[in-house]
Design a protein that fits this description.
The structure is a single chain. Strand 17 (389-393) and strand 18 form a beta hairpin. Helix content is 40%, strand content 25%. The strands form 7 sheets. The protein has a 7-stranded mixed beta sheet with strand order 3-9-10-16-13-12-11. It has a 5-stranded mixed beta sheet with strand order 20-19-21-22-23, sandwiched between helices. The longest helix is centred in the N-terminal third of the chain and has 27 residues, at 102-128. It is of the alpha+beta class and 515 residues long. It has 3 domains: 1-70 and 216-389, BirA Bifunctional Protein, domain 2, CATH 3.30.930.10; 72-211, Herpes Virus-1, CATH 3.30.40; 412-512, Rossmann fold. It contains 18 helices and 23 strands. Helix 2 (39-58) packs across helix 13 and helix 5 (102-128) packs antiparallel against helix 7. The structure holds glycyl-adenosine-5'-phosphate. Residues 218, 220, 250, 252, 261-262, 265, 267, 269, 332-335, 372, 374-376, 378-379 line the site of glycyl-adenosine-5'-phosphate (GAP). Homodimer. Keywords: Aminoacyl-tRNA synthetase, ATP-binding, Cytoplasm, Ligase, Nucleotide-binding, Protein biosynthesis. It is found in: Cytoplasm. It comes from Tenacibaculum gallaicum. Its main location: cytoplasm.
Length: 515
């Protein structure tokens, strides 16, 4: 646990020190759970967004994008169910005065039991080696069976209290499990209350004539209300999808864990409209496709897992999360939801306008069903960033900090370094920058000894360093150094563009999805 916390602290300080993420309004001591992306962070974020957009929109003939407004007609949120049901159950500890999400307290408790099971499995694996059979161990080991039973009972009760909105039952569950406040260590809990997460604001100049509106808590509704506009103007045939990326706002109760849970964040969502009855098959297809997208970045299969929802949201008939192993454990990174015809039907009802699709093949009209894929851009940023941050022991006994970002996502693809600030080397380096910058984000750096410059670029995550030295003057060659292997090669200046392209080109990364 302490190791996890250490790693998380390193992530936070590295993100600040190397210009990735700053606390918002830091000079005023910051605003809780609101962050700013700095000069490198904004590039990484853009590259993740572009990588998603390429895979989800531009690589699919039947998926198009939109950019809807953050402010929407207030009835949207009545229809979607957010005004009445977008709540989190909260509970306060009377001694520490800290506020928690009741469901998160129970889920964290359950996860700790799960971690104990995992530990037993790891130990047994070591002991039995090749002969180890995990399924058999899980179904026969008394400790694992007892713990699994406990997990199942907690899950069943958690689902029940959530589905029945049994707030007293929720509190009893926390008390019965003996859950203590992480700050005060006490079990002195208040009642559980529901808290609506939407930020409200006023539209209009005067208090009398103003209308209550909301900052959107998800981007999805901007897609639903535009469903027919896009379908008609784009002559889209079912099945088809509409995607968008953009800001969403939630007044989160528990707003810790850096950019993992923010009050202002960005989503990348795609709603895929299908014929009723085919939703199950499309749901499975999108689960598979989305996992492949993650795998294409090479972050490691062991860092991902699916979690099927025990409690379905009011709009869903199936839902799963793709969870990622963040520095604080496995947590939701992306949701894949089979949303039925709930949203479109609700908007039909509240707007009085038909939102139906006429199927020329069957000569029938229907409200399509929807499969949604929804990923938080900031969470993806944290997943990539935290996984890439590594400390390596080098052969000479020293250590180096290196940010091994997938090259396709790295903010800067190459740093061009004149060995010295004289003898015409800066001029050649500048010429290389001027040529490469048409295709790649590159930087020029002449400050400090070249070894220090390499370390700085390693820590920022730049895949290539290109050094111009006195031999360059003779033969037009430079040294290209690879961030991950630290291997150095002598190459012709005119070959640089191709070498960089091979490693950072979106095509070669996304093609891994097809493998
Ligand atoms: N349209 C469906 C929807 O919004 P969600 O599970 O509430 O579903 C989707 O959110 C994704 O948005 C999550 O998987 C997560 O990555 C991201 N997300 C949600 N709340 C967030 C927050 N407070 N801060 C950062 N990301 C968040």
């Amino acid at each position: 646990m302490a190791k996890q916390e250490d790693q998380f602290k390193k992530v936070l300080s590295h993100a600040k020190e190397y210009g990735y993420v700053f606390q918002s309004s830091e000079i005023y001591d910051g605003l809780s759970a609101v962050y700013d992306y700095a000069q490198n962070g904004v590039e990484l974020k853009k590259n993740i967004r572009d990588y998603w957009w390429k895979a989800m929109v531009q690589m699919h003939e039947n998926i198009v994008g939109i950019d809807a407004s953050i402010l929407m007609h207030p009835t949207t949120w009545k229809a979607s169910g957010h005004v009445d049901a977008f709540n989190d159950p909260l509970i306060d500890n009377k001694d520490s005065k800290k506020r928690y999400r009741a469901d998160v307290l129970v889920e964290d408790y359950r996860e700790k039991i799960n971690e104990k099971i995992q530990k037993d499995i790891t130990k047994a694996k070591k002991r039995f080696g090749e002969a180890f059979n995990e399924d058999e161990f899980r179904s026969t080991n008394p400790n694992v069976l007892r713990r699994q039973k406990q997990i199942d009972e907690i899950t069943a009760e958690l689902t029940r209290v959530q589905e029945e909105n049994d707030l007293e039952g929720f509190r009893n569950l926390i008390i019965d499990l003996g859950i203590t406040c992480p700050v005060s260590g006490s079990k002195n809990w208040t009642e559980v209350k529901q808290f609506n997460l939407m930020f409200g604001t006023q539209l209009g100049a005067s208090a009398d004539s103003s209308t209550q509106v909301y900052l959107r808590p998800e981007t999805a509704q901007g897609i639903f209300v535009n469903f027919l506009n896009v379908q008609k103007t784009g002559r889209m045939k079912i099945p088809f999808g509409i995607a968008q990326t953009g800001k969403a706002f939630r007044n989160e109760i528990v707003a810790r864990q850096f950019i993992f849970r923010q009050r202002e964040f960005e989503q990348m969502e795609m709603q895929f409209f299908v014929k009723p009855g085919t939703q199950k098959e499309w749901y499975e297809k999108w689960k598979e496709t989305r996992l492949k997208w993650h795998m294409s970045l090479g972050i490691g299969k062991e860092n991902y897992r699916f979690h099927d929802h025990d409690k379905l949201a009011h709009y869903a008939d199936a839902a799963a999360d793709i969870e990622f192993k963040f520095p604080f454990g496995f947590k939701e990174l992306e949701g894949i939801h089979s949303r039925t015809d709930f949203d479109l039907s609700q908007h039909e009802k509240f707007s009085g306008k038909k939102l139906q699709y006429f199927d020329h093949e069957d000569n029938t009209s229907y409200v399509p069903y929807v499969i949604e894929t929804s990923i938080g851009l900031d969470r993806m940023f944290l997943a990539v960033f935290s996984n890439s941050l590594q400390e390596e022991e080098l052969e000479n006994g020293s250590t180096r900090t290196v940010l091994k970002l997938p090259a396709v996502l790295a903010p800067t693809k190459a740093a061009i370094l004149p060995l010295v600030k004289k003898d015409g080397l800066p001029e050649i380096a500048r010429k290389i920058v001027d040529d490469l910058k048409w295709d790649f984000n590159v930087v020029y750096d002449e400050k400090d000894a070249v070894g220090r410059r390499y370390r700085r670029q390693d820590a920022v995550g730049t895949p290539f360093c290109i050094t111009v030295d006195h031999d360059t003057l003779e033969d037009n060659t430079v040294t290209i150094r690879h961030r991950d292997t630290m291997e150095q090669k002598r190459v012709k200046i005119k070959e640089l563009s191709n070498i960089i392209k091979q490693e950072v080109d979106v095509r070669s990364w996304l093609q891994k999805m097809e493998a």
